[in-house]
Amino acid sequence: MNHSVTNTTTSTSATAKVMGKERTTAGERAGIPPRRMDFEFSDDTTHYWYGNNAFLTTFWTTLSALFPEGETFFVDSVKNYRHIITNPTLKDQVSGFIGQEAMHCKEHETFNSMAEKQGLPTDKLDKELGVFFRLFRKYIPQKIQLALTVALEHYTAILAEQLLREDIHQEMFTDHEAKKLWMWHALEESEHKTVAYDVYETANGDYFTRVATMLIATIFFAGVVVSGHLRLLWADGSLFKWKENWKGLTFLWGWKGLFPRLAKQYFDFYRPSFHPNDHDTAQLLDDWREKMLQDGGLLADQIKNPALARAQNNIAAA
């Protein structure tokens, strides 16, 4: 499915040559460089690519199914306020944010196409979410649209941090291409985690609207993900595999499960003085840029221009 965000003009390399000189793009100046990946998922991609578990694989696939329409909405809600931004750094960050989200949309569409071939109705979930967001754009004030983006970007930021910080996640991937996609996405979500929030602050967004929208978004997000997950399990023929599903459910919701481990960071959002940078990921991102982009790194053979990717890495880490 095509989305408007994928049509956003973005640089696909670290620098552009202008009259024989290198020009640093806005996203690079801000440490938020869009990176073109062009992932390819073959027909023999591992069916249960996360923990060799149907429940967990379909959970992550549900999230992927929602990303194209979701990230299109995120970009649109930020672009609504682009004209009021006067801070040069934030202007550059917004450009980087738009470029990165455009690439995420594109790559997850490719991933979702692979899931469709495996019998999972990801495109249907995406289209249904698109209907909701079109209604939301039409009837809900733009400030609330931006507040929803801030809330959902908080979810993606804390989930991305856990993917990067905890080795268990890297060990659970049984398909190398899937691992590259999700870890690259986690890196870039962490790189631009402050942008929507800072635009909201620039637009004089208030505390009450921010937290009230987060409460509503939490209920909405849970409902969409749970219903979508059940539908993918049904399509996969795994809905009633009780033992397998209990293992997956425990991994996500057990005493030390994925979501309980996110609880403290989630509730931080409700502090009046909260800012995404309160969760310090600077060193974590430096470490992962090294792991991904340097010679022999996870994405060294994937990124379109490795030399320029290393230049991006140095700029982002500066």
What does this structure look like?
With 318 residues, the chain is mostly helical. It has one domain (4-10, 54-279). The protein is built from 13 helices and two strands; from the N terminus they run ββααααααααααααα. It has helices at 26-29, 54-79, 88-117, 122-139, 142-165, 167-172, 176-191, 195-202, 207-236, 242-253, 258-268, 282-293, 306-317, and strands spanning 15-18, 21-24. The protein has a two-stranded antiparallel ribbon. The radius of gyration is 19 Å and the shape is globular. The protein starts with 14 loop residues before the first strand and ends with a helix. The relative contact order is 0.16. Residues 4-20 have low confidence and may be disordered.
Biggest sheet, strands in spatial order? 1-2
Unreliable runs = 4-20
Helical stretch tally: 13
**Strand proportion:** under 5%
Using only C-alpha atoms, the radius of gyration works out to 19 Å
Which descriptors apply to this entry?
2 strands; 13 helices; globular; 318 residues; mainly alpha; single chain; two-stranded antiparallel sheet
Secondary structure: elements and pairs:
Layout: E1 15-18, E2 21-24, H1 26-29, H2 54-79, H3 88-117, H4 122-139, H5 142-165, H6 167-172, H7 176-191, H8 195-202, H9 207-236, H10 242-253, H11 258-268, H12 282-293, H13 306-317
Antiparallel strand pairs: 1-2
Helix pairs in contact: 2-3, 2-4, 2-5, 2-9, 3-7, 3-8, 5-7, 5-8, 5-9, 5-11, 7-12, 12-13
